[in-house]
Amino acid sequence: MKILLTGKDGQVGFALHEKLASIGEVIATNRNELNLENSDAIRIFIEKIKPGMIINAAAYTDVDKAETEIELARKVNAEAPKVLAEKASQLNIPMIHFSTDYVFDGLKNEPYVETDQANPQSVYGQTKWEGEEAIRKHKKHIILRTSWLFSSHGENFLKKILKLIQEKSSLNIVNNQKGTPTSADAIANATYKIVKIILNKPNFKDFGTYHLALDGETNWYEYACFITDEAIRLGLKTTMTSQDIKLISSDEHPAAAKRPMNSRFNATKIKNTFMLEFQDWKQEAAIALKLNLVNS
User: Fold this and answer.
1) Which of 3, 91, 236, 261 has a CA that sits 20 to 30 A from residue 68's CA?
2) CATH number belonging to the domain at 2-155+182-216+264-280, selected among 3.40.50.720, 3.80.10.10, 3.40.50.300, 2.30.40.10
3) What is the pLDDT of residue 154?
């Protein structure tokens, strides 16, 4: 079976590409091979390859630039998923799509569940929500909401902190935004299992929206301290320690796009539906740190 995987150079796409190879022929694309800004190009590409499943791991993810590059963000995050879903409907094939915590306003005191009301506060969040809504018109869809992504590939908070603690003497990190760091590998492993279940159950009916997050929670400040302490424990020579990290509020760190104060996800639904188990985020982050240090 052919699987179309978009966003192969992103953190999730990169992790997924290799895992999916054992299931079937993976046609993995980046922006050069499939321009998601061009709806006609998407249609022609899908009609040519006729996949048996579409997995959309591509997105416009620069949340601050999206505030000014509104048209581009909407093309990639809303219009492209709409076209992908329309083609999936025509071919009567399943589609898996990745979304974000930014579809919520972050004001809830508890971890978000799938039925909570969306209320995006940024262009990025709004365009991702529009993409979700377009995909929901296609019956055979799985939307996986994730947040605070990290891996040894691509750009992310873990790698940024790892770099800064080797260059700076101190850091200011926000402490009033909560979430659960989640590895691209964990997302890829869960997605792989979901794909196999869908393909092995001809009457699979558990399509819909799911929250995918590791266990535990933290804030950006505590996360940065963990990264620093763990990196030092693993032998990295740094120019500072976690004691040199100062906590600040989000008001002291203005950004073009508003960040959710609460990005925590309740992952009970996905665990129960697909019989999944997740590790604590610290265990996965420690693994990623070790990989980063080995590869650096």
Assistant:
1) 261
2) 3.40.50.720
3) 87
